[in-house]
Amino acid sequence: MNIFFFRTNWALLLYMLYEPMWEQTLYCFMSEKSIPRYFKENRIHHYVLRQNEFHDNLFRRIYGRIIDEFNYWNFVRTIRNIQPKHCFGDDDSLLSKPFIDDDFCVVEDGLANYTPWNIEHLQNIGLIGHGCKYKAMGFDPIIKKVLLSGAFQLPNEMIKKAILIDVRKKWQEKSLNEQKKIMAVFQTSEEELASYKSDYVVLTQNFDAYNIQSGESEFSRYEKILKNYPYGKVLIKPHPASRFDYSKNFPDYCTVRQGLPFELLELYNDYNVLISINSTAAFTVPGTKQIDLYDMEGNLQKRFEISPKNRVSAREISALVPPVQKKPLTVKQILQNIYYLLLRKIMWHIK
Questions:
Q1: Running along the chain, 351 residues long, what does each successive block of 10 average in pLDDT?
Q2: Which of 90, 176, 203, 288 has a beta carbon 3.0–4.6 Å from 276's, enabling a disulfide?
Q3: For 327, which DSSP code?
Q4: How many helices (H) and strands (E) are present in the chain, helices listed first?
Q5: Strand, coil or helix: what is 313?
Q6: For the CA atoms of 88, 93, 94, 99, what is the dihedral angle to 10 degrees?
Q7: Distance CA 86, CA 158 (A)
Q8: Whole-model pTM above 0.70?
Q9: Where in the chain are the domains?
């Protein structure tokens, strides 16, 4: 049985392109809001960790969280009893940690996650717990398989682990019915995807969710960037978690419906210029294109000419990824780290 641990829509799409029997997989989600409607309507097996986090009443929310933790321990015991099983997905979440072994196949995420700075950062955030030596994103020696699109240069640590798939080729190999099913998972259609025609696309980020210092607001930053391209001719692709209303603030530009994976858009459109601050979705699908990367103040930092023979490496964009400012340590974070330490020793069996 295959088990997939969800992190991003891109990883989910990559897995479904790779695995012919993706509908027979058990999918594991941290939150209810991440579950595709298609999974519910077609009874695709799935598990949700946080089922009781949206109560308005504080007592019910705390009680629900306790219930979720007991369910988590029961979930781990249940999955460990499934034999044979093959695990795919992200390797830095509560759900996936108990099942990390040499058969676990990590699925590619955005290019920024493969920069040396980010690998170190992932080892020191609450999700894993301070002091954890496990190297996430498939860098740890215990991981032997990493599913990658091959759109960027492989880090040295990944060369022997990489399972490379050509996204465009895999999509073309799918039957029309299979393509429709995958599009249904992301609540879209061929007609909608093909409607977003443009030579230029700006890929935004959800900076309002992070403690990142900048002299520019979300509006002024992108207003400054858009002035470098033909007025009204740039397609705006919002980040899935962004709360900024681009269609309202930039009414003369076409804005992609939020939640639609850019990688699916690229399969149906030939975008020539991709514009971004640090959205690494620009690098996920192989092809020939120009990628303009800007800094947080809206200034052009670097222009890449990408082709199948000229791929970018994660180190080349390291300086362009703005570091997140550390937040003051709270009592909640301290208790969380103690809990994760307990999990590492008792359940995860990783250092």
A1: 92 94 95 92 92 68 81 89 92 87 88 66 52 77 88 79 89 96 95 94 77 71 94 92 89 91 88 84 78 88 84 66 62 76 74 60
A2: 203
A3: P
A4: 11, 12
A5: coil
A6: 30
A7: 20
A8: yes
A9: 2-168+326-348, 188-320
The one-letter code for the residue type at 300 is: L
Which residue carries 């093959």 as its tokens? Answer: 86
Buried/exposed 17-29: b ≥16 CB within 10 Å, e otherwise: bbbeebbebbbbb
Structural contact between residues 98 and 348, judged by C-beta atoms closer than 8 angstroms: yes
Of the CA atoms within 13 Å of residue 130, those in its CB half-sphere come to: 7
Look-up of token digits 């995860």: 348
CA max distance for the chain = 58
- C-alpha angle 142/144/146, rounded to 5°? 120
For residue 189, CA distances in Å to 38, 196, 263 come to 13, 12, 14
Instruction: For residue 163, list its beta bridge partners.
Output: 147
Q: How far apart are the C-alpha atoms of 105 and 91, rounded to whole Å? A: 9
Give me the pLDDT at residue 123, please.
Answer: 57
- Enter the tokens of residue 228: 């470098």
Looking at the chain, list the stretches that DSSP marks H as alpha helix, in order from N- to C-terminal side.
9-18, 37-41, 58-80, 116-122, 167-173, 176-185, 190-195, 218-226, 246-249, 262-268, 331-343
CA atoms within 13 A on the CB side of 285: 24
> How buried is residue 285: exposed, middle or buried, by Cβ count under 10 Å (0-12/13-18/19+)?
buried
Cα distance between residue 178 and residue 17, in whole Å: 10
The rounded distance, in Å, linking the Cα atoms of 67 and 82 is 23
What's the burial of 155, exposed, middle or buried (CB within 10 Å: 0-12/13-18/19+)? Answer: buried
Helix axes 176-185, 9-18, angle to 10 degrees: 160
Q: Are strands 145-148 and 105-107 parallel, antiparallel or unpaired?
A: parallel
CATH of domain 188-320: 3.40.50
Length of the chain: 351
Q: What is the pLDDT of residue 321?
A: 56
**Residue 17's pLDDT is what?**
95
